[in-house]
Structure formats: C-alpha cells, structure tokens
C-alpha cells in the first residue's frame, strides 16, 4: 500500500492515514469508500452513529481486496454503553458491516456523567480476548478518563481518537498518550476544511512545496506521529489527501504550523458532552 503503517501497542499494524466517513449518507458511502479503496486507502473510520456501516461494508466487499488488507474501525455509540449493551452493539455493527471481525473498536465518547465507560471497556476486553476485534481503544477521552481506565482495566487502549488540527494541537493529551503507549489519532484533521485551509502561513507553505493546503496539514500530522482520517466525498480530494508520502516539511514549516495553536475546539468538550 501507499500508506506506511504504525505499530499499535499490541503489535497490530494500522495505516497511518485512513478515510473518515462521518456525515456521508449510507447510500453515498459505498461509492465514496469505493473511490478511497481504489485510490489506495486501506483504513476506513466509521461509527454506529454515522449510519453508514452497511454502505461501508458493501464497498469493502465489492472491492475484492482481501479482508486482512483493509483496516476497519467502528465505534460504540453513547446510548449503548454498559457491559451487555456493548456486546449487543458490537454484534449489530459487525452484522451491518458484513464482517466477522473488526480491526479497531472505540468507545465514541467517555460520557463521564453516565459513569459507564469502565464497564463498556470491560466488554471490549472480552471481545478482544474472544478474537472478534484486533485492537481496542477510545475516543474523546481526556487524560483523567484514561487514568481511570488504566487503573481499573487490564488492556492499555491502542488508540485515543481526539479532535486535533493546527488550531487545537492537544499537546497535553499527546504527551500523556506517548507516556502510556497509546497512539493519538486525529479527528477533523483538516479542521473540517473551513478557515484552516486559508490560513496564510499554511497557504505559504503549500506554495513553497507546490502542494495544496490540505496536503500540508496532513503532512504536519504525519510528521508529528498522528494517525489521520481525512474525509471527503469528492474523488479528486480523496486522491489528493492520500498523495502525501513523497515530500517532507522542514523544521521551519513544522514550527510555523505549530505556532497556529489556539486551543480552539470545533466539536463538543468531552468533559460535559452527554448526548445519547
Ligand atoms: P476533516 O477535517 O477531515 O474535514 C473534512 C472536510 O474538509 C470535507 O467535508 C471538505 O469540506 C473538506 N476537505 C477535505 N479534503 C479537502 C481538500 N483536499 N481540500 C479542501 N477541502 C477539503 O473533518 P471530519 O470529517 O470532521 O473528520 C474526519 C473524520 O474523523 C470523520 O469523517 C470521522 O471519521 C472522524 N471523526 C470522529 C469524531 C469522533 O468523535 N471520534 C468526530 C468527528 C470526526
């Protein structure tokens, strides 16, 4: 594949760049994921709440790519937290995807007010020991939630998938993950495309390398060691976003992007988010 892997803390390989499908309707997911697989993506990031596990699964089946060459992530929705309900939600996701195992299963949000993420994670450990999922992890966990998980469960999460882009660089989380052997995965790596791709410093670096701003931002993530899952339904952008393995940002470029941090979230704060 075009995309080099990272090695998760249990030895499993995961492509460092994958394809995100949030907000892609189920009937468009098959085509978008199909285009991504054709373009060389071998990792797909979906979730039960996205409502497109079926379309995603159809695209994987139709691609003819051997199952062990595609890395599939899905996520446990908030309403399904709890030990037994997690096991049922997993079965439902697996059936919708049409698969017999999942590569990476994540707790979508911690919902600290509901106090169920430890029980949910214990169900993840059961799924892992039964071989139904190759790696388990979390999403939107703050260091305090990870601390509790590490204290009360036995398997260190392989991944914490968090909002991360040049305006929200998450230095404290990244440092904590590094100490614990957890890989950081960036959601909304392009800041959802909005103002970020017009920031003058990023546009200037793009011109210098004869690349697009999106490619510069993705390259910054990769050189930091983040796993990234950019989303697009536009075929030319899908191809553009994976075409980032034949150039390198220099230390000056990296410093200019690192100077853009504003600790500004687009999405909800995990400490208080409790929908579902
Ligand atoms: P993103 O940062 O990937 O931005 C996607 C948007 O950027 C596109 O809709 C498009 O408008 C624009 N874009 C994409 N490629 C472009 C290009 N080459 N040039 C110009 N514009 C471009 O945002 P996202 O979809 O929010 O995040 C990516 C993935 O992360 C999601 O699809 C999903 O899989 C995951 N995610 C997870 C969570 C979570 O809570 N775990 C939350 C949000 C997203």
From TrEMBL:
Keywords on record: NADP, Oxidoreductase
Record flagged with keyword DNA repair: no
Residues engaged in binding substrate: 108
Primary enzyme class: oxidoreductase
Annotated NADP-dependent oxidoreductase domain residues: 17-262
Record-annotated active site: 50 (proton donor)
EC id: 1.-.-.-
UniProt xrefs under Gene3D superfamilies: NADP-dependent oxidoreductase domain (3.20.20.100)
Keyword hit for Oxidoreductase: yes
Single annotated GO MF: oxidoreductase activity, acting on the CH-OH group of donors, NAD or NADP as acceptor
InterPro entries membership: AKR, Aldo/ket_reductase_CS, NAD(P)_OxRdtase_dom_sf, NADP_OxRdtase_dom
Site (Lowers pKa of active site Tyr) residue list: 75
Family: Belongs to the aldo/keto reductase family.
This protein's name: Putative oxidoreductase
Organism: Streptomyces davaonensis (strain DSM 101723 / JCM 4913 / KCC S-0913 / 768)
